[in-house]
Amino acid sequence: xxxxxxxxxxxxxxxxxxxxxxxxxxxxxxxxxxxxxxxxxxxxxxxxxxxxxxxxxxxxxxxxxxxxxxxxxxxxxxxxxxxxxxxxxxxxxxxxxxxxxxxxxxxxxxxxxxxxxxxxxxxxxxxxxxxxxxxxxxxxxxxxxxxxxxxxxxxxxxxxxxxxxxxxxxxxxxxxxxxxxxxxxxxxxxxxxxxxxxxxxxxxxxxxxxxxxxxxxxxxxxxxxxxxxxxxxxxxxxxxxxxxxxxxxxxxxxxxxxxxxxxxxxxxxxxxxxxxxxxxxxxxxxxxxxxxxxxxxxxxxxxxxxxxxxxxxxxxxxxxxxxxxxxxxxxxxxxxxxxxxxxxxxxxxxxxxxxxxxxxxxxxxxxxxxxxxxxxxxxxxxxxxxxxxxxxxxxxxxxxxxxxxxxxxxxxxxxxxxxxxxxxxxxxxxxxxxxxxxxxxxxxxxxxxxxxxxxxxxxxxxxxxxxxxxxxxxxxxxxxxxxxxxxxxxxxxxxxxxxxxxxxxxxxxxxxxxxxxxxxxxxxxxxxxxxxxxxxxxxxxxxxxxxxxxxxxxxxxxxxxxxxxxxxxxxxxxxxxxxxxxxxxxxxxxxxxxxxxxxxxxxxxxxxxxxxxxxxxxxxxxxxxxxxxxxxxxxxxxxxxxxxxxxxxxxxxxxxxxxxxxxxxxxxxxxxxxxxxxxxxxxxxxxxxxxxxxxxxxxxxxxxxxxxxxxxxxxxxxxxxxxxxxxxxxxxxxxxxxxxxxxxxxxxxxxxxxxxxxxxxxxxxxxxxxxxxxxxxxxxxxxxxxxxxxxxxxxxxxxxxxxxxxxxxxxxxxxxxxxxxxxxxxxxxxxxxxxxxxxxxxxxxxxxxxxxxxxxxxxxxxxxxxxxxxxxx
Length: 873
What we know:
Blueprint: H1 22-64, E1 74-76, E2 80-83, H2 90-99, E3 103-104, E4 112-117, E5 120-125, H3 130-134, E6 141-146, E7 149-155, E8 164-167, E9 171-174, E10 181-183, H4 193-203, H5 215-228, H6 238-247, H7 254-270, H8 273-283, E11 285-289, E12 292-295, H9 297-305, H10 314-323, H11 336-352, H12 358-365, H13 376-380, H14 382-392, H15 398-401, E13 407-410, H16 414-439, E14 452-458, E15 465-469, H17 493-501, H18 503-506, E16 517-520, E17 523-527, E18 530-532, E19 543-546, H19 547-552, H20 556-566, H21 568-577, H22 599-605, H23 607-610, E20 614-616, E21 621-625, E22 631-634, E23 639-641, H24 645-661, H25 666-669, E24 677-682, E25 686-691, E26 696-702, H26 713-728, E27 746-752, E28 766-772, H27 789-795, E29 836-841, H28 845-852
Parallel strand pairs: 1-13, 3-4, 10-12
Antiparallel strand pairs: 1-9, 2-8, 4-5, 5-6, 6-7, 11-12, 13-21, 14-15, 14-26, 16-19, 17-18, 17-29, 20-23, 21-22, 24-25, 25-26, 27-28
Helix pairs in contact: 1-7, 4-10, 4-11, 6-7, 6-8, 10-11, 11-12, 16-26, 17-20, 17-21, 17-24, 27-28
């Protein structure tokens, strides 16, 4: 039987017993890969998250550690006096107290609080009160009001009646950094609810319900942007805006947006909603005033409405909220129509989200814009603040001044500052009008720029600077013209006359009194080898004139003749002792103010007339305190006696004649009637310096490039001075001025106007004159040659003897602190000036004859023409 072969059997390869097929094994490999990639992605994401979390946390910690903002020092005004019977309302006093950082009702302000019940207002100074620290009636007081007046002032509780009280110094402004940013920090609880709601309605009305990022808002804005093919807008919450402004640049990239979101989420974890809103409210940019950038709602409320941030009304709050979106575009100063429109948009939005009722929205929309006039000078006194900062930098570092919140108490009177700024505004407009009329003349050259102005106001008894305006527009130019050196012209002449009158107390000859005769005619004076030929204004000459007439009508030749009589070096010593710089030279030109001085120096020098002979160095900072109230630095008042009080009073009398009947008569014709004395001045510029018993003010008007103003001081500076004084007289503290008081040793005598000797009972022509006791001229007797009146003035040059022959009284004692004759104030004997040659006189009998018939009043003096060896600017 044949054997059959079995077919070969194929063996299937065996797999490990895993229960998986080859296909399952492959899928399992991919899962591992994916899992690995997932784990790797998670690790990377976690690492990135941790990296950015740490990075941004450090950024937040660094930015928010310590002081978040530069806490700039606060500049305060002087305290304000309130008198019983004064016309002022309770609302006005409350506004002043809020600007002094008081709170209504017992609050957290360390400065103090006030509370009102009916017609009574109680004021309670706090532990940081300046009044309490300085011992100026720092206890609680109660003020009664009725019909817009203070009816009573009593101590709170005890009800002890008082005639007057003081209100706390107000905040003028804050110091600024190099970027000229101003910011006034506020707390969340200080903000008015309407302001918070206005900002929320405009920027992020769900702020208190989201966690820093409103994803629904982002998605909706993205869909709208894609649909309308526009840039995505309106996605940032208030927290995201804060993150962007605090930590990031303003570039528009996805990376920055992601960082913005991340930071916003972190901020919400680190800070409360109130803290975030507070940071936002202090950070936002809200426009420009003058040369300063305004940041934060605290500064904006002060700048735009002259209010503290807690007292803003609904329309005001809505305007600030609207400005946030476009501070330049919606500027209420430059674009009031746009500002009004955006304010009403905010009000409608507040109504839509339920923050206000339709009635409230309609009422607020009908209200005017309410922005205060842009009078930066009146509200913030920027030229004055610049001076304060420069002075403080001599004592403190700039970093401390803008970060330590020092309290700088100044001498500035805000009521007088307002009067000064308004006077400059109206006065310089009058100057512009006069100059525009000149431009229309063919012979008048074109003027490429406007004239500038400076006004400084002092308390003549303390030297405190009460008001200061350094230019016509601080925003256009920050040059403080109060500190600019210019020729004072004839406003310097009083120092010549004061030097001459001091002969009565210093004992040198000739003895000079107000009746001393000076010859006013064309004259060439020789000083060394140099001739000097001063001219009167319009070349009008008056022949023999008394000392009083020569100063009242600002006669140049007579003044130089007087300076020659007493010695140019004596004039210089007196001026330097009165605070004018040492650049003066003892030459004939000194008599006419040909050497430069600043308006502040001239104002300070005039204190020797207004302050009974004592010079007081101008000052403007009372003290600097830290946040605990500790005094860090205080200004020391400097004063010295320069003139005998009797000489000072006679000078006041002579300067009163300037205003009553001389070149300064425009003061009276413009309606200012209070007791006052002063002097005009004309060089290239116009000057007027004058004073009442309680205020002294100096005004300068001129061009920065030292061109001729072509207006005398009587027509340029005097109108500004008068406008200021008239406004100052409306302020209660300066309203009731008493006449200037004569010191002991001054007598009044009746003088015969024909002879300038003591009048007899039969004299038909008389006037009263003041003298230092013992220097009154002798009684009238026969005139030499028996010539009187007109003929006497013709044929007897000088009219009467320069020194009354009957004066035989011994020299009076020197005033305390005055230098001996021939010695300077520093104890050094100055070199003698070259001996002056006898004057060469022009003209003769005909000119003298004609001069007799000229009127007694001349116009303003002509500018001095100094000799070649004098300094000019």
